[in-house]
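Minutes, methods subgroup
Present: GH (chair), OT, SY

1. OT presented the first of two proteins processed in the latest run. Sequence and structure tokens recorded below as shown on screen.
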Amino acid sequence: MNNLPATRRTEDLVCFSHLRWGFVFQRPQHLMSRFAVRRRVFFVEEPVREEGIEPSLRFRVCEKTRVTVVTPVLPVEATGQQATRMLGKLVRELFTRKKIEEYVAWFYTPMALEFCGKLRPKLAIYDCMDELSLFRNAPPELKQNEQKLFALCDLVFTGGMSLFEAKRGQHSRVYPFPSSVDCRHFAQARSLRDSAPDQVEIAHPRLGYAGVIDERIDIDLIRLIAEQRPDWQLVVIGPVVKIQEDRLPRLANIHWLGMKSYEELPAYFAGWDIAMMPFALNDATRYISPTKTPEYLAAGLPVVSTPIRDVVRQYGDLGLVRIASSPEEFLIETEKAMTYGMTMKWRERADAFLGTLSWDKTWESMNALIEEAISSKSRVKPDTALSQSPAEIGSAA
């Protein structure tokens, strides 16, 4: 990221996200941080609700990334159309207060169309990171809003090949951008000593998982591994979301260590023997392209995964990740990974492949498409520009 050109663009970038900036550091944070080197970036996260307040905006400029995080604050009692109208007014306030005139609109969620107001961006982008309609508690109107977003956007990016295949027939300019990796950051794990304070006393061998713990994780598989191999220690890092804490198996060899910062992850990875990806095979995982796959490999860890389609095609078929289609196979493949470890030839092939997946390269490719699209639209004659640009986005008054 240090080598990205710092030439300032005139267009700002306004990103509408269903995720909080400070939740976990993943695709939105990596990309927006890089765009912020060249232009003002406003990251509008999901609203918070508080008792006894008037609708307002909170701003926080991240020193490290220069991204301005915008948090709408709504009263607890505001729901439905009332909340939508409040959000619409707050978005207009954002544009007025920050003097946002020439800008690119970037969407991570089609639900932003409910409140983002009648925007007229210079360019509109839908970065379809996940198939949100298949996630637990997804709003019923999400699919309809996504169709509207397809009609309004100039470019559509997808978070993996499976999503690309599912979406490419719905827009003329859909581009796949699978999960990338900051190799330098995670490669620290190869030389760090095992120093994470809440992990250092845990015995070996250790199987580790880091990520959000929700309906995409096969809790029963984690329980079975722990029961079948009581001498293996399972270390699980990440926030528990949308599932009850009492559903988590509480065995002596399963260690739920909670959420850790992005900066801390290499220290934890340094103390693992195997990285596991115990994903359930369900609607929520049908199109995922897990960010942790390349991060584990960059850390120098052997990886065992359930047969997630994008993992199989991108990593399993190349022999970079061991694929297990049943609980029994997961145990067998994990034992093989422990026995054979990581040969130098395997590591060289993994590193060569990871060299094609840097976030800098992903940003550069996206940015080139954006620059080309803006230039192309600027050449359109004034009397036809309106018909070839996105319609007014949103309908909130």
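2. SY then presented the second protein from the same run.
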Amino acid sequence: MQIAVDLVAEALTQDQQIYGVNTGFGGMVGEAVRPEDASKAQTNLLSFLATSSGDWLDQRHVRTAMILRAHVLAQGCSGVRFEIVNRLLRFLEANALPRVREHGSIGASGDLVPLSAIARAITGHPHVEVKWQGEACESSFVLNELGFTPLELLPKEGLAIVNGTSFSSAIAAHAVYETRHLFACTLAVQAIFLNALDAHQDPFSDFVHQKKPHPGQVWVAETMRSLFGRPAQNRNGDSLPVQDRYSVRCLPQYLGPLADSLQRVRSVVETEMNAVSDNPLVDPDTGRFYQSGNFLGQGLSLAMDDLRRDIGLLAKHLDVQIATLVSPEFSGDLPASLRGNSELPYNMGMKGLQITGNSLMPLLSWYGNPIVAHFPTHAEQFNQNVNGLSWESANLGWKSVAIFRRYLSVATLFAIQAIDLRAHKTLNHFDGRALLSPQLQRFYEVVMETLDGQSTKESPFLFNDGDRWLEQDLAKIEQSLESAGELWQVLLPIVNSFDQQSS
């Protein structure tokens, strides 16, 4: 790191022209900056970038962005002192996190505006708040409390902190991390749906998928076989068609490509997290400066566009399965709308819950539309005439994850009710666990524990419409699916299998 700092200083004394060191920024690169003004230009950079807008970002994203920026700078190609990295780490240790708003980056020249808030906080620059000990404080106050004084930036240091994709990468990393678990939950719920639909097992045979061995397809089929777990004798004899509808029969072929896509997205995000993404880059071995474009977030943006599209497709398939379950002519004669007590003609079962699911699924499909193709071509004097839009793509991905978690809460309640009703048809009692594999039994039990209930043979999950407040149940399941929740923990074996498949 120090070699790169010395190289910047030496280049200044030799009047070597280096972008952002002794030139203006962006489209004003033709403006010469005198050596004696080089440090002032870095401080001024943080001033003119104090322009964010909108709601406050989740502090998890801010924290991860700081970690990733420290990692980038510590690789020694950015021309910054160790003091900068040390301050980032010290702020993290004290859980002192700058407050950053949700709008202000187009993923070209990196996440300039949001990263500038971090830069202002750690250097003692005004115009930024820091969340510390539960309060929003002036950054100068926090800086003093941590034993630091305002830091005069050396040439290139301000640019090195703000010029890169660390913030987009942070948000994308969280979205991918959460989606892995939600994908696992999708498979668990789908497996319960299959049991409730009394589905054929042939479509999941290893023989079938070795004849079309896309990695994701093979893995999904294998996972569904391990989760399925229903003995063949539980089928309703010859009353069912010889083969199931496409949403059941083609499930591995549909979900497999989404598993493959998630692996690709994960690989892109991990590469970006570890990349040196600012400009110019300094080679400490040769002393050469490379004025280049690693700050462009195009790869990240395309990956997050893919992630949002895939989440929409996951929800679409679940929505089809739910529509099948609530229709007796398609479900193997389960009660209409999965109502528990059919003796009451006004009992409507899960009709309202399906409407809620139907309201969320199109929203997820809409979020799946790409944003990367819509970049403006006129940013700051046409210098940024192509943009990555990784920031917005990642933020939309994070919002899509949250909506999908809500949708999976709906699907989970349908799964529990459906398997209870299938148990009654097959075994003459309402305890759906009897039709599930041990892993799915645990999933079922944790759902019931989360909802402060327990399985009985006398009644399904929902008997009369007024027995439960499903709105409250949805909120509890959603919370349990968040990081470190009970359902999150139950799904870890599937997530671990997914991770092993990628390696």
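Chair's summary of item 2: The two ends are 32 Å apart (CA to CA).
Next meeting: continue with the remaining queue.
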